[in-house]
From TrEMBL:
Matches recorded under Gene3D superfamilies: Porin
Keyword Methyltransferase among UniProt keywords: no
Key word Signal present: yes
Keywords: Signal
Endpoints of the signal sequence: 1-23
Organism: Arcobacter caeni
Entry protein name: Porin domain-containing protein
Top-level taxon of the source organism: Bacteria
């Protein structure tokens, strides 16, 4: 983190809360203020050659709107600024601002502002206050954060430079005793109603109902509306080269979940190896699952029991690197995360295991360093699952793409991706192609 070199008087007043009653010299006002942040620009271009595929509520050819993804080109922006001010020796005030969603369609998810360059003119974007909390460190090896902050759990993403974020108002405590770190948190309000990548009931799938039925489920209160109390406890243990963690989370009257994970890294004769294993289980309250099924239909995708087991292996030898990852979800459901980037699910570029029932998901990556700061990789992903619990429809998604990543400096990097994505569904009598895409992306990220 860096101290602010220059700050206008207006900004200093905003940050420090100065008034005529407690005015002080500008130099004193800003000397204990630190700033961090990120700037990300992303261009996405998707071209889908298939427009006739129809998969609705776990069935083929249903007379509902086509869920195929149309071609699109978007400019995406996200700018984040974190300000930290020392109040006294034991207390620090922290705030975070995100320039994201367009002003006319602010979503409260602290994600990208996505501007469709194929259909619309340029737009300005709005600013969200995502964090405003006090951090107390007056107890040895203990941190207590109170206020509006990121949800620091395995199911969520508290801070993300190039994605959406989960936030809430409450208290988080972390305390380290020897090799053990204990965590506990309670939030009485969150932005999960806006930031969820996967709604309860599997709405992350393209097999989900169209918007009017999703809206009906929201009206009935069958998905998280942000007012639920969220409580979590966790323990992280460092045992030699292995780090083990175990967590439990409860969302009031909605669901409870637990996860256990272990990861390790070692160096064998110049080959750096890594292993990361995790299991997670999420159980919807029965009333929620029943209500969701009632909203969707008798053959809906909402199930009480959801689970995932995943394993990732990485290797780095000289200029070469590789990764193999595998995830499988429960036969009833695989809704195990509140963000597709969370550690309790597995995400590729266009493929996620989150919300997919009875899934087998493979990822394979092979890369080479062309230069010390230039890496070229080939990426493959394939997932097979059933459209909904007890459905007779099988779905397969596959992506193949190349990625060129250039790290110009420590705080500036960019990558280019280009490849294909396909999705097809079949039952005992027929099959449909839902996606047959060519996809490209350019991203530039600057951090400070």
């Amino acid at each position: 983190m860096k101290k602010i070199a220059k700050l206008s008087l207006v900004a200093a007043v905003a940050v420090m809360g100065l008034t005529t009653a407690n005015a002080q010299p500008l130099e004193e006002a800003i000397k204990n203020v630190e700033v961090t942040g990120s700037v990300v620009y992303r261009y996405n271009d998707n071209s889908n050659d298939t427009t006739a595929g129809s998969l609705y509520n776990g069935k083929l050819g249903a007379d509902k709107k086509d869920l195929s993804k149309e071609s699109s080109a978007t400019n995406n922006y996200k700018v984040a600024l974190g300000l930290s001010s020392k109040v006294n020796d034991d207390v620090k005030f922290n705030s975070r601002f995100v320039v994201g969603a367009p002003t006319s369609t602010g979503t409260g998810d602290a994600g990208f502002a996505s501007l469709n360059s194929s259909e619309n003119g340029d737009q300005n974007v709005g600013t969200e206050l995502t964090n405003a909390y006090f951090g107390y460190t007056g107890i040895k090896n203990t941190t207590v954060n109170v206020g509006k902050q990121g949800l620091t759990t395995p199911w969520t993403v508290a801070v993300d430079s190039d994605g959406n974020e989960q936030t809430g108002t409450g208290i988080l405590a972390l305390s380290t005793v020897g090799p053990v770190t204990l965590a506990a948190a309670y939030f009485n309000q969150t932005n999960l109603n806006n930031s969820l990548d996967a709604k309860l009931g599997g709405f992350a799938n393209d097999t989900s109902p169209d918007e009017d039925i999703i809206d009906a489920a929201v009206v009935k209160g069958n998905v998280l509306d942000g007012s639920e109390d969220i409580a979590t406890i966790g323990a992280i243990v460092v045992a030699g080269p292995v780090t083990i963690d175990a967590w439990y989370l409860d969302a009031q009257d909605k669901f409870d979940s637990y996860t256990v994970g272990a990861k390790s890294s070692l160096d064998l004769s110049g080959v750096k190896l890594g292993i990361d294993a995790r299991y997670a289980s999420l159980s919807l309250d029965k009333s929620v699952a029943v209500a969701l099924k009632d909203v969707i239909s008798a053959n809906g995708v909402a199930e009480e029991d959801n689970s995932i087991a995943k394993l990732a292996l990485t290797a780095k030898a000289g200029i070469f690197d590789a990764k193999v990852a595998y995830a499988m979800t429960g036969k009833e459901g695989g809704l195990t995360a509140l963000d597709n980037d969370a550690t309790t699910t597995l995400l590729g570029w266009s493929i996620t295991s989150n919300g997919k029932a009875d899934a087998d998901y493979w990822q394979v990556v092979a890369g080479v360093d062309i230069l010390s700061n230039l890496n070229l990789s080939a990426n493959y992903g394939n997932i097979q699952y059933i459209a909904a619990a007890n459905s007779t429809v099988d779905v397969e998604e596959e992506e193949i793409y190349a990625q060129l990543m250039y790290k110009m400096s420590k705080n500036l990097n960019t990558y280019v991706r280009y490849g294909t994505y396909t999705k097809e569904a079949s039952d005992n009598t027929s099959s449909v192609d839902i996606n047959d895409d060519v996809r490209g992306r350019l991203q530039v990220e600057y951090t400070f």
